[in-house]
Write a structure and sequence with these properties.
With about 110 residues, this protein is an alpha/beta fold. It has a single domain, classed as 3-Layer(aba) Sandwich (Rossmann fold), CATH 3.40.50.2300. The chain has five helices and three strands; from the N terminus they run αβαβαβαα. Strands 1-2-3 form a three-stranded parallel β-sheet, with helices on both faces. β1, α2 and β2 form a beta-alpha-beta unit. The longest helix has 13 residues.
Length: about 110
Amino acid sequence: MVRLARAVRPDVGCLACGGRSRVEALRLARVLKTDVRIVPSLGFYTRTGESPPSRAAVESVHVDGLLSGAEDPAALLSFAEALLSGARIMPEPWPPQAPGPVRRLLTRLLGR
């Protein structure tokens, strides 16, 4: 994935970070954000029922946002668009309990 990111240089990326993929996602995020910022805007997402990484872990790898309970591809697309526009989307209170507040924030940010 890192080789592909270096070749393509995407403006935004979203990584699944729940369940067993958490450690791998944190490692990958660190490389993508610190290796000459291969991916300038990077977000994590979890699926329904998956617990997100700790706030300290997310901040330590410089991830720009977290979407909890992402099942709908349209929600992920809106999330990516918000990150691309420069928004930092971190749920409060932490840890996020439900996707509702994040989706409402995305709707306000994107005017949808």
